[in-house]
Amino acid sequence: MRALLDVILLILHFYGYVIIGVAILSWLLAFDVVNFRNDLVRSVWTFLNALTEPLLRPIRSILPNLGGIDVSPIILLLLLFLVEDIIGRYIYPYVF
Predict the structure, then answer these.
(1) How crowded is the C-beta side of 1, counted as CA atoms within 13 Å?
(2) pLDDT in tens, 73-90
(3) pLDDT tens digits, 21-60
(4) Which of 49, 50, 72, 85 could form a disulfide bond with 59, CB atoms 3.0-4.6 angstroms apart?
């Protein structure tokens, strides 16, 4: 059972890096550092968006409009850290 919790924690940790990657890539696209017409950039953006958008969309629908600032990745990261902490503190020590 601990092995399953280790895999879940590893996936959550990796997903945190994916969220950070989406945020950084969106900034690079917004400031025109990388070009969306590039096939590699477009394929990476599509892949990362497909991974993160199902969890970011409900958060965006709850949040008020803040103009051009999107804080939904930060909220999702905080929720992810909360789930990791709950698993690490309350579930993992009591599983054999």
Answers:
(1) 7
(2) 999 999 999 999 999 999
(3) 999 999 999 999 999 999 999 999 999 999 999 999 999 9
(4) 72
Q: What is the DSSP letter of 96?
A: -
Judge whether 96 and 18 are in contact, CB under 8 Å.
no
If residue 13 lies in a helix (H) or strand (E), which one and from where to where?
helix 2-30
**Residue 40, domain extent:** 2-94
3-state class (DSSP) for residue 52: helix
With beta carbons less than 8 A apart as the criterion, state whether 35 and 41 touch. yes
For the chain, the domain total comes to 1
What pTM did the predictor assign? 0.89
